Amino acid sequence: MRKGSYYTQVAIIGGGISGAALLFMLSRYTQIESVMLFEKYGKPATLNSSAKANSQTLHIGDIETNYDFGKAKKVSTSSSMVANFITHFNYEGSIGFRKPKMVLAVGEEEIAELKKRYSAFKTLFPYLELWDKGALEEIEPMLTKGRKEPILAMGTKDKITTVDFEKLSQTFIELSKDEHCAVDLKFNTEVTHITKKWDKFLIHTDKGEFMSDAVVVNAGAHSLLLAHEMGYGDKYAMLPIGGSFYFAKTQLLHAKVYTMQNPKLPFAAVHGDPDLTANWRTRFGPTAFAMMTLERYHDMEILNLFDLLSLDRSVLGVYYDLMKDEDIRAYIMRNFVHELPHIGNEFFIKEVRKLIPTLSSDDIEYADGYGGMRPQIIDKKAKKLLLGEAKIDTGKGIIFNMTPSPGASSCLGNAFEDAKILCDFLGVDLLKRKIKKELCDEKEYCYINRQPHR
Description:
This protein is of the alpha+beta class. It is 31% helix and 25% strand.
């Protein structure tokens, strides 16, 4: 078939960090000849990849205590590709930043748990250090001031920990234009549905129809909606979770400081981060609450929302299991209150004081315009909430990705997995040696082989 403005070898739906990373991976590291990217807004990374919609953290798995060893190993091998990209292509100081980071244990019970974790994880992350109260008085004195409880932290001082994923998305797209691959960017173009025509995919948009040999849908919650419309992913439903933040009125922390995760709670514990969009002023969060929309600050058709909620007996059973636990029920109610004007900070300050005991409610303010959506996938057959990425690989040339946290950190690893599938399907080469050279650290786990690169 003749190539033109209506035809491409690969179509990518969604111009956030996942779609942009895949575009870069395909254009630079494969022999695919043409890629078309569709994004319904006028520029990339306007939703969850925006620097204001996430914590700007490169999640490695070293201080995220809601990750077990297996997940931490998988995330570290994938997210190291982002750190290596930033270093190899000289984007330190503009896209990626070296900031200290730590997880803080408060009280004897959490300290004992953190020591166990350090013993188990130091083989995977040999650079981690334990810092007692005396050390923390030097590193982050605000954590110790006015505190009565014993504390211990585990962290590191010299890693790329902070990433502007919005700028990274834009950079991936700009670099892709300079490769051998023909890149066609379709901004302000909304994909309404996808159908099959002969052995091709017909992509229906508000700007006309386009044809492709293969498709990857990286459109967040809309990925599942498009999958359902094509008859895929019926076993999945979605729980739309929103997150907001609070700012300190001054810069209080120089490090990213996470807290220990309550194993009963399915969402991230509160943490404090120097914010790159606000001259490194400290931002606290996120909150977590159910929202009747799938894009923060954007409306959604109610019929689409009900399709994704898929409120049958299995889904309602998951909701019931969550709500019957007293800790989870109290957590949900607290987070609802955190969103209320004028009084939210009076309640949220109780969460923040685990980090900085001396703060009062007057020291923080609701971060207007900050926050995003983290749609969580429900496996209806297993009757459980999936706390990670979900992929529907049809084996027929179309892939649907739903990537909640740490989807941004894992963007290049996920792109590599999709590139392998696409290259096999299309019968073209994947340039693994080039990927190893540019995106893999010889001293750390290389994602290409899931083993140390030699």
